[in-house]
Write a structure and sequence with these properties.
With 478 residues, the chain is an alpha/beta fold. It folds into two domains: 137 residues, 3-Layer(aba) Sandwich (Rossmann fold); 269 residues, pyruvate-formate lyase- activating enzyme, CATH 3.80.30. It is built from 20 helices and 15 strands. The strands form three sheets. Strands 2-1-3-4-5-6-7 form a seven-stranded mixed β-sheet, sandwiched between helices.
């Protein structure tokens, strides 16, 4: 029996870790997860577990954390250090870091199981598909296996988190990952690159069987309770027949308020009516940009303003809360074009208009475009991307990744975005404020609506208080 330690920075139950743990435990291995945020000394905690394999599941935003702790652990243990997740999948050169013995490219369930089996039996592990490994001074780059039929996988192992981190166990919203893969090609995302990597190896988009989804939901709700259910998957409504059948089964068997993401251009009134009937409480969707030319030609989001507005109106008509996702800091953007995104959101009337600053990952189409058209410096590197995407507000960092005119105003527009959407009468005042240097008050303004919703839907007083204190800590100098 091999012992596998998963390590992460933040208090969050990750689906990747839960499914890997489920597959490994089904294979007879022992797994535990260690969260740095909840530990006084996470390195010592891991060492006391005596793992055979230490695993990082890493997005690019978390690369600095992974490198830091992989180096610390490698100095103190002979355990095999493995990195999986999006970052090594798209930047496999990370294997050159001395602290990593291997990386996993693409889907890792059966690759990691094979590795654990080899450790358990003392067998050679140099030729495991999906893994790049270093052994005896040589690098072994193995091919990818076929894409996984997600319906053959076990239920997610929630116990790995819930038995240890009761804040996650007691969260009022329980999340369920019910669809894997995305058919779209947004330029700021890696889906187009993933399709190239897996070309000829199966369908990128895979829907879970509805009976399996319902069975898992029943089991989790019975064991841990829930006030809301969250369907995870950005493309949940692209197969209308499957989605409508899921809604019918959900209403019959679960009958609990739920949250989900949708593609807004795939929405119609029949679908929204059925969502409401099945107790949809909130829907999230990407607007991204209010300028149709930028949205279609730069971001490759092929939807019209009319589709976005009509979809938003349908959700409002049926009393379903709406949250939108929006981007500032895109190539060719001006304050005027960014304000088009604000004005489009006003017609949707979202409960929360979330705003994000474009992060142009090397290897994405938006990165290539930005570099080709002079919006990025040639020394642009991961040192900026691996910071969790926090925007500096103390004058030490430029908010925008891209070289844009009026970058200060665009950075500040990010902070004031939701306020601008909801309070048109403040527009002339905010247009003056955004010319000032970014500061803690602007960050506070940005955080207030997010914390307000978080407090409203948290179950315990302790969690509500924690959110409020987090808001107040904005003004405490580090």
């Amino acid at each position: 029996m091999a012992r596998i330690a998963f390590i992460q920075e933040e208090l969050r139950d990750r689906f990747g870790v839960m499914i890997l743990s489920a597959v490994l435990k089904q294979g007879g291995h022992n797994c535990d997860v260690f969260i740095q945020e909840k530990s006084k000394d996470v390195v010592s905690d891991i060492l006391n577990y005596h793992p055979d394999i230490i695993a990082f599941s890493t997005m690019t935003a978390g690369i600095n954390f992974a490198l830091n702790y992989a180096k610390k652990l490698k100095e103190k243990t002979d355990a095999f250090v493995l990195m999986g997740g999006p970052h090594p999948t798209f930047y496999p050169e990370i294997i050159n870091e001395e602290c990593f013995d291997a990386i996993c490219i693409g889907e890792g369930e059966y690759a990691v199981l094979e590795l654990a089996n080899c450790f358990d039996k003392g067998e050679d592990f140099r030729n495991i598909k999906n893994l790049w490994l270093k052994k005896d001074g040589k690098l072994y780059k193995n091919d990818l296996r076929e894409l996984i039929d997600t319906n053959t996988l076990p239920m997610y192992d929630r116990e790995i988190y819930y038995d240890k981190y009761h804040e996650l166990r007691d969260a009022p919203t329980k999340k369920f990952f019910i669809i894997r893969g995305c058919p779209f090609n947004c330029t700021y995302c890696f889906n187009h690159a993933l399709k190239k990597i897996y070309k000829g190896k199966g369908n990128i988009v895979r829907f879970n069987d509805i009976d399996k989804i319902i069975t898992e939901m029943k089991d989790v709700i019975k064991k841990y309770g829930a006030k809301w259910v969250q369907f995870n998957g950005d493309t949940i409504n692209i197969n209308k027949e499957w989605f409508m059948e899921l809604l019918d089964n959900y209403k019959k068997n679960i009958d609990m308020p739920f949250l989900c993401n949708v593609r807004i251009e795939r929405v119609d009134e029949e679908m929204v009516r059925k969502m409401k009937d099945a107790k949809c409480d909130r829907v999230d969707f990407g607007v991204e940009h209010g300028d149709e030319e930028i949205r279609k030609n730069i971001l490759k989001r092929n939807m019209t303003n009319e589709q976005i507005i009509n979809g938003g109106k349908l959700f409002n008509k049926y009393g379903i809360r709406v949250q939108t996702a929006n981007i500032v800091g895109v190539p060719h953007e001006t304050v005027a074009s960014a304000m088009k995104t604000v004005k489009l959101n006003r017609q949707i009337k979202p409960e929360l208009a979330r705003c994000f600053v474009l992060q142009p990952y090397p290897g994405t189409e938006i990165y290539d475009y930005a570099m080709e058209h002079g919006f990025l410096d040639h020394n642009y590197a991961f040192s900026k991307l691996g910071t969790g995407f926090q925007i500096g507000f103390d004058g030490s960092a430029k908010g925008m990744s891209l070289n844009l005119d009026k970058h200060r105003e665009l950075t500040n527009l990010y902070y004031f975005f939701d306020v601008l959407v909801k309070h048109k009468w403040l527009e002339s005042i905010i247009k003056l404020l955004i010319k000032l240097p970014p500061n803690r008050f602007f960050l506070f303004i940005h955080a207030v609506p997010i914390v307000k919703i978080d407090v409203k839907y948290q179950k315990s007083f302790k969690r509500k208080l924690s959110s409020v204190l987090g808001l107040l800590r904005i003004f405490i100098k580090k």
